[in-house]
Amino acid sequence: MKLKISLLAVFGVAALALTGCTGAATSTGDGVGSSAGEPVTIAVVTHGTAGDAFWDVVKSGAEQAGTDLGATVTYQGDGDPVVQSQLIEAAIATDPDGLIVSMANPDGVRGAVEKAVAAGIPVITINSGLERSLEFGAQTHIGQSEFIAGQGAGEKLAEAGVSNVICVIHEAGNSGLEERCKGAADTVGAIVSNVQVDVANLADAQNTIKSKLLADPSIDAVLTLQTGVAVAASQAIDEARTPAVLATFDVSADVTGLILDGRMLFAVDQQPYSQGYLPVTFLTLQKRNGDVVGGGLPVYSGPGFVTKENAAEVATFAENGTR
Fold this sequence. Notes:
By secondary structure, the chain is an alpha/beta fold. The protein has 12 helices and 14 strands. It is elongated, with a radius of gyration of 20 Å.
């Protein structure tokens, strides 16, 4: 209930941003009045690479917010924290009105993020890095607590009566993924073992999962943390001829299809479109009306859960590229 109330408040703020753009007068972050529709430029630099289904949805959300609000939004992404830091510093050099950053490797991008804060650029973190966001000087974080989301996944797996779970991590060094597995282990009441795969090679990921299942027939659940890996795991389960159940984090048309077909129990939905759309809205509102959203605390975009009961509805949005 608290989450629902929080999200209603968030979208109420988004609506205010839209109406604020058409008001008679607005305000910059330093309190100086300006005319309505003042130009706003926002840079987005994530650890997600082009072509990734999840990050394409985040990008779409950010760009749509820019279109709706009349703000200029640039988007770049790279999974290497060194390269991501370079992209952040390049964005700083353009003196944007706001910077949106994901922090899968917080220490790897800390210097660049703190440089933006020192330059007086408002920073909002998204998706990864919730626990370090305030420490680095960001105004708020938009995403989900990965540990809490993992706990929710563990509880649902416990309801299914599982006893031996493999949690498939697809990006080495991604602290958020590790938190998901830790959260699941905290509540599932079963053995949880982490398995490392490479998201860039889903065929190898499928073979790795299949080998684990064949080597240990007691494994009765697979928890994946990315949609492409979820599809690979489904195929691995089929090939291994095991009754192991499958669950995943994140949503795609493929994932909703697996749920509707009864081949997946559930998906944890952190709503990536909101992770792109909301920070652009907040930073535009800050530039044009002087509002600073979050108070140093996170704005949760999840977790929600997609099950057979609501998968058909979510599938419609997933096909549109917004879930």
